[in-house]
Amino acid sequence: MPDSRTPFSDPADPGLYDYWPWEGRPKLTWPNGARVAFWVAPNIEFYELQPQPNPMRNAWNRPEPDVLNYSIRDYGNRVGTMRMMEVMDRYGVRGSVSLNVAVCEHHPELIEACVSRDWEIFSHGIYNTRYSYGMDEAQERAILEDSLETIERHTGQRLAGYLAPALTHTERTMDLLAEYGILYTCDLFCDDQPQPVNVRDKRLISIPYSLEMNDIIVYNSYQEPPRRYAEMLKTNFDQLYEDGAENGTVMCIPLHPYAVGRPHRISAFEEALEYITGHDEVWVTTGREIAEYFYDHHYDKAVASISEANGR
Amino acid sequence: MTLPNSYMEYPSRRYGMDHQWYEWSMLQDRPEVSWPNNARVAVWVNVALEFFPLNQPPEPFKAPGGMVTAYPDLRHYTLRDYGNRVGVFRVFRLLDELGITPTVSFNSKVAERYPRLIDEVVQRDWEVMANGIDMGTIHHSGLAEDAETALINESLTSLREISGQPVTGWLSPARSESMNTLDLLAARGVEYVGDWQNDDMPYAISTKAGQLHSMPMSHELDDQTVQLQYQHSETSFAEQVEDAMTVVYDESSACNGRIVSLVIHPWMSGQPHRIRALRRALTNVMRYDSVWSASGSQILKAFQAG
Q1: Counting Cβ atoms within 10 Å, is residue B82 exposed (0-12), middle (13-18) or buried (19+)?
Q2: What percent of chain B has pLDDT over 70?
């Protein structure tokens, strides 16, 4: 099949979606009249001490072995994940895990803890120190095939979602996700609702994940204190809840147990979770359930509305 | 550009870690640990006494808190030296008042330049921990093994001589190690290191020269990380310590002790406008019924006894 967007035909615009103004969209509804579909996406990751080098990006800031940064991340697996899980258990929130799938081999105990809670597992590549930059099509296919096979073997789940490893992409990533029957991508940050993604064959949607509410972005990029993170999460929710009365919205809290799971930070997350789940018109759900519901009830209407908005 | 096919090979993809230093283990699966008097939380306060040379080299990287401007960066040199002249006495007085037994890490250059500070520590019967030579001397893989051996020998020998203590705890400047650091430390009688940030409790590390332990010497709750790197206020620092203590105390029990560790830099927390926040933070930690303020060696010994 000819592949007009590989490479992207217009390098200034990936062409992955069409402009679709917020106002004037058909009303998006969620089960039981919920205004907000709320999901929590913990990234369970493995960072290699001495990864194969990628010419486009260094894995570590310091000379290897970068024991400080390696061990900061390893904290998530040894300590942070269980602390975070216990908080989520208290509020009845199931995680949708963005998984470096090699964790299935390195730390199967963590996978077992997720599966026993009926959490969703989706792929975040093989390792967080292996980047997609520079991969040819066969290499990128190998990542997806490995993800599908490893997750199914260790969890019994059919892979539904994808967040590119360390958010590294190629121009063909979205096409390949659709081709392998993956339902949703977390890599596009352009909306508060699910969006159809333009792919060469089959269907794919983007589900709002979030950079702005991501613990690593808040703590490491914006360098906010924990109590401020709780305020940001609650304010973000308040606005999406208000807007959701008019047209349904999605809120995601992307987490990294190595950050959120530290003793001085966990209570900020708990405060936000208690607040959000204390509202009636919230659908506490997973990535897969949001995607399936959107395909079943809204996908066709969204495509028609986008065509109309673009004069087609 | 395409990647070589070796990029798709994962030689360490197997159960456990991708190195030989320590075993994979989740905190929840460890044997229970009891502290003296069945204390629930061991409070491990560390005071870091550092010397930042004015000619701090930029390679392989500058330790946090180091020189910033073109040479001579008198402003940062003197601001850091403030800690050793003034701030340290403010911090020590506060620790005395609250009955806290800290561990004090020294760059060996601090002990050599300011022996008064070693005297202050030894007189109080506090533990001296080694922190390399100075903040411009980073351990990293670009160092030949014999060069690194010389650095470690210099630091340990100097601190052991000046303090008269065995000096069995080690913190690497900027918490940076080479592939050889742990082997070299274990061979020279070091029993614990504070560089690793992956646990709330001690754990065993295997080296070519036998075993030592990682001790949880918190970088994320270090006053310098919070207030210089993240630029949070001193008020927020005290709140973060309070929040950490609440969580760790809740998770602990009389038969399963935990550790709260704090690293204090006198050049940071010893400033007049920050010392009161440090007082609030430490007072809050010590107000709990069942806490045990102890040195790194004491905590490790109790941990090993089970």
Answers
A1: middle
A2: 100
The SS3 call for residue A49 is coil
What CA–CA distance (Å, rounded) separates B176 from B59?
13
pLDDT tens digits along B260-296? 999 999 999 999 999 999 999 999 999 999 999 999 9
Which pLDDT score is estimated for A268? 98
pLDDT at A8: 84
d(Cα B300, Cα B287) in Å, to the nearest integer? 23
Quote ipTM for the complex: 0.98
Q: How many CB atoms lie within 10 A of CB B72?
A: 10
Q: Report residue B60: phi and psi, to 5°.
A: -75, -20
pLDDT at A9: 84
Q: Which residues of B touch A127 (CB under 8 A)?
A: 10
Token pair 């708990």: residue? A270
pLDDT (tens digit per residue) in A254-269: 999 999 999 999 999 9
Q: Which of B121, B125, B124, B123 is nearest to B111 (CA)?
A: B121
Q: Which residues of B4-26 are buried (b: 16+ CB within 10 A; e: fewer)?
A: eeebbebebbeeebbeebbeebb
What is chain B's alpha carbon radius of gyration, rounded to the nearest angstrom? Answer: 20
pLDDT score of A1: 37
- 3-class secondary structure, A218: helix
Quote the distance between the C-alpha of residue B184 and its chain's center.
Answer: 18
Question: Which residues of chain A lie closer than 8 angstroms to B247, CB-CB?
Answer: 83, 263-264, 266-267
The residue of chain A nearest to residue B248, with distances taken between CA atoms, is A263
Candidate from A130, A139, A226 with C-beta closest to B240: A226
In angstroms, rounded to a whole number, what is the distance separating the alpha carbons of residues B32 and A129?
Answer: 34
Count of positions (residues) in chain A: 312
CA distance B149 to B165: 21
Q: Output phi, psi for A160, to 5 deg.
A: -115, -25
Distances in Å between the alpha carbon of B123 and those of A62, B116, B120, B128? 38, 10, 5, 11
Residue of B nearest to A53 (CA): B7
Which stretches of A156-225 are DSSP H helices? Answer: 173-179, 215-216
State yes or no: pLDDT of B1 exceeds 70. Answer: no
Separation CA B89–CA B270 (nearest Å) = 8
Tell me which residue in B178, B219, B243 faces A226 most closely, judged by beta carbons. B243
Using a CB-CB distance cutoff of 8 angstroms, which residues of chain B are in contact with residue A52? 6-7, 9
> Across the interface, which of A130, A225, A267 has its CB nearest the CB of B232?
A225
pLDDT score of A3: 45
The pTM for the full model equals 0.97
